Amino acid sequence: MIQIDGNTLNLQRFIEVAVHHKPVTLAEEAKGKIQESRDLVERYVEEERVAYGITTGFGKFSDVAISKEETEDLQRNLIISHSCGVGNPFSEEEARGIMLLRANALAKGYSGVRIKTIETLIDMLNKGVHPIIPEKGSLGASGDLAPLSHMVLVMIGEGEAIYQGKRMTGKEAMKEAGIETIVLTAKEGLGLINGTQAMTSVGALTLHKAMVLAKMSDISSALTIEALNGITDAFDPKLHGVRPHSGQINTAANLRRLLDSSKLTTKQGEIRVQDAYSLRCIPQIHGATKDTLRYVLEKVEIEMNSVTDNPVIFTEEDHVISGGNFHGQPMALTFDYLGIAMAEVANASERRIERLVNPQLSGLPAFLTEKGGLHSGFMIAQYSAAALVSENKVLAHPASVDSIPSSANQEDHVSMGTIAARKARDIVYNSSRVLGIELMSAAQAVEFQEHKEMGLGTEPVYTTLREVLPALIEDRILYKDINTASELIDNEKILQAVEKKIGDLSI
Prior knowledge:
The structure is a single chain. The protein is about 55% helix and about 5% strand. By secondary structure, the protein is mainly α. The strands form 4 sheets. It has a 3-stranded antiparallel sheet with strand order 4-6-7. Strands 1-2 form a two-stranded parallel sheet. The longest helix is centred in the middle third of the chain and has 31 residues, at about 195-225. Belongs to the PAL/histidase family. This is Histidine ammonia-lyase. It holds the Pfam family Lyase_aromatic.
């Protein structure tokens, strides 16, 4: 059971709920603060005091007064009018992450939402009612208005949801799950949709996958180093100690452990004096990405436990402040950075694939097939990798450098943070497929070595891959192999086999 209180959620707990469906409960100690903020909202309504989104309209309509008799209509109208998402829905994991993050933000007690409303959101998580939330349509300020509105539609018995594998109306899903729908009261509609939870959910899930890929990039490159009789002097700890970036030091250490006891690697001068950058500079390239991932993790975990609402209610001072905590710029820049960093991992991997298949660079049979001409071997596998990294270069253009005014220029700078998160997600997917192709190519290249002893960390990679993918003797349909190799990355089977043998790899 994961308790949420608005302060202690981290990436690991987020993944346990969003991916592994661990149940959630609202911490008892959070309820007092939640109720205090709710009491203040109700007092403002009763006294008809002017406060944005409580007794006024929204956006450009912030100067329109709303009577206490109209507050319920105001909040319902907000949700149904803002449900303007388009495109494919977010995945089940992404939708679960959105709900968890919104409930956690509300649990801090600065939003004025009722305890009952938060518990409805938690019940939906625990019972598997997953709103259909279109992934396009958010500017990332004022938060993820359109995506979060689609989430709230189901809470009020509207919209659509997936329940027990079936798509149905929100009303049907809530009824079948035994969850009572709610009637939104003062401030609640705004409190549920003013925030960065869609971009943060997508970004957090992407970060988790990126952290796995960061380790897998070391693993796949170690296998390539062996296939090309790479020089290990470049991974000497003395070299990296004089340029002490943590990611660089950790990557070099990972490579030394992976290649320990290998008879396929060489020392400088034995075959050649130095390797190409895509081999020699692995610690510097992968290390920079790992430093980025640590930065992204810090920012994501701050955002997970932040109040991204507007207005924010401070009960101690009897004060409601209208500000801009919903603005997604901190996440927009962060997820752009994540996408760029992961695109570089794939770039380096594709260059290593080229070195494996190109006989002028490898000394191995062209395209890793013995009967070149009759067979094409890994020729087009490299094409696919090249296409993926080229697509990544387009996707890596920052979303955060764009802005467009909205709400009659009241909201004249927006973050595009949700686009940044979605682009990073697509880059990570593409990169996992490039690494899968590198694993296949490197394992095939090893077949042409004299089957000398492999490294302590690379031997389980080769063995795990060969359990499901035999060596390529004659041409076969390779997209199936690419999918299989990539699945071994996605389900962490190769990573687990390696870490079981040599211990956890570092990021």
